[in-house]
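Supplementary notes for students who missed Thursday's class. We covered one full example, reproduced here. Read the sequence, then the structure, then the short commentary at the end.
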Amino acid sequence: MPTSVAQSASKILIADDDIRNCELLEAYLANQGYDIQMVYNGQQTLDAVAKSPPDLILLDIMMPRMSGYEVCQRLKTDKATHEIPIVMVTALAEMGDIEKAVQAGADDFLTKPVNKLELTTRVRSLLRVRHLINERDRLLAYIASVEGLHEATEAK
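Structure (token representation):
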């Protein structure tokens, strides 16, 4: 399948304290043309997002220093990062875990071991939505600037 322009420009942050899980997710996504970064605990996740916000985050729940739930909640309550799609990826599969992830603001949920087709399909879908939102925001900003120029011209 050819890589779209949106995919090749997409940055994905993988956050999991087990390097093997990070490498597996990276391998599943490698031939899709994404720019992939890996981090290994909750604080590194927040630091990486602050430094260079990704287009999507694959976030493990059980991590040292800060759980995925807490990371997700912090990112979703911050105006600068609340629109970044977050997929919780975890070995936990109880309904309460899923509910807690949704309450923290997760956009989707995958259970380990992750199915490659399920992962790539959800990532592609969430990135498509992310890029449409970004395009909408750019168009709204452009319209506002054009209207501002028009109003300034009329005021003269």
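Commentary. The radius of gyration is 18 Å. Residues 116-155 form the longest helix (40 residues). If anything here is unclear, bring it to office hours.
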